[in-house]
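The material for today's practical consists of a large collection of protein records. There is nothing in a record beyond a sequence line and a structure line. As an example, a complete record with its sequence and its structure tokens follows:
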Amino acid sequence: MSDVKQRRVVVTGIGLVTPLGTGTDNTWEGLMNGRSGIGPITRFDASAHAAQIAAEVKDFTPERWFEPKQVKNLDLFVQYAVAAADIAMQDSGLELSEELAERVGVITGCGMGSLPTIEEYHSVLLAKGPRRITPFFIPRVIPNMPSGHISMRFGAKGPNLALSTACAAGTHAVGEAYRHIIFGDCDAAITGGAEAVICPIAVGGFAAMKALSTRNEEPERASRPFDRDRDGFIMAEGAGMILLEELESARKRGAKIYAEIVGYGLSSDAYHIAAPPDDGDGAARCMRMALRSAGMNPDEIDYINAHGTSTPLNDSCETAAIKTVFGDHAYKLAVSSTKSMTGHMLGGAGGIEAAFTALTLYHQCIPPTTNYENPDPACDLDYVPNTARKMQIRAAMSNSFGFGGTNGVIIMKRFEG
């Protein structure tokens, strides 16, 4: 392990398609200004649903990236992923030669594949019979289509994986891409997460679990991580992709470097299908594993991009886990949840939040936790309330925790050569 750890991995490209806007600059500006991407659901008539709000991507123009026939035959979560990857690759300036192509991987995450397409063609099957099912049905719904289409778009012939670990999928994808570069399987990887399941069955299903906020009259104030009055998460859609590169390869081509990824942890709660243990044990073990992977002490972390879903259980358990791992330093950390503005992108969340973590280190500015108005005694850390904060950030952690008790954590450092 000591030999492979000599390879260093950096972030050289970032691409975002989010409810705050298509394009990295649009999203980052929205975060810094505390703008919300949450509003009434427009994808379908949600009037019969308990939860009638979501964070939809409003400005996406698929024709910018796809021919009309492709738009028809590619599910929205695939479109978002490919577009985000294209933005990241353009940002990076990396061009794949024939020789380089075999050394570039694609590793993506999503939680649910395409529920909207399944929902649509189930209705077609019942109403019109099996002969009316499109031959593109299966290629539209399977979870590895983002990684497949991204690899075809850029000719990336290296390791190709798709992870489906619920809300930790995007973070696991980034962590596994980091490992593949460390281990020498590839020299670069396009990685992140995507999701697009704002449809009746998904909203109804999560609402049936009492997981979603029903603050329908105040959509922009509904996602309130760590606040005493939080009542559930807001479903979101979009994609976040980053380009990871081995440092020397990036240096040789004069790449812009946003941050260095230095640690990765993953664990299981082994506890419950949807609820974390009260003490956040699995999350704590995951954070400790990431710190060991990075060879860092807890007091070297300055900022945590929290999972922070705005659900009563997650936010108190995550806070407990942070205090377990960081001790007294927990009260010196800045902790914020960008889901207060973007909503919760499920399997795509870790991808956009990895991008946010890299941008935070690059700009030395922390996105706020908006709608933090009424402190909860169980959540007593510094959550960067309501206003972005300029400060010196040496290293940052990004947390993701998913149903089934699966946890993922990555650590990045400010790049200084």
